[in-house]
Design brief:
With 201 residues, the chain is mostly beta strands. The chain contains two helices and 15 strands. Strand 3 and strand 4 form a beta hairpin.
Length: 201
Amino acid sequence: MVDLGTGESWRHLDNTLEVRGTRGFVPFVWAEAVYRLSALDQVITFAGDFGADGIALSADGETLFWTAVGSRTLYSIPTERLRDRSLTSEILAEASVVSRGEKGVSDGMETDSNGLIYAGNIENNAINIYNPANGTVQVFARDPRLGWTDTFAVANDGYVYFTVNQLWRTKSYYPGTDRRVKPWVLFRTKCPGNGTKVNLL
């Protein structure tokens, strides 16, 4: 956590199971099993490398949602618990984590003004929506061009923008060759229910 007003920073949930990848985790993108390469060029799973990455605030700013790239589970915590710096704040933070269930493998996440949370579903060429109001996950968009979707942003024009980053095709991944294919792509799709950008300020 960082207080932008004072510049102070502190940590919560550091290295807890919910912010780390699942042991032995192997995602699949376009029907390819994806493995990382270690510094010693050994093939490894995602468990140690990809912790909490996809992060989104609820539309009211009261809840933080996150996922580890090396996991299919969505978690949340009240932001009040993350702002707390009291003596028992870490105990309270850890006790406040909620598992929201599986939502697919995703990297980036974003929230719209209707409170819907967009998350990539890299294993199914899709973008999913998690609805905190009823706890369901639905496929929002699916297209064979979608792979490792990332960098989500809902704009004032009512569209959600995202990239397909080809991360799994770089030299850091097995078999260790650069297999990226141009052009690099930025997509957009209309938000349902006239959703638009969240403005918390």
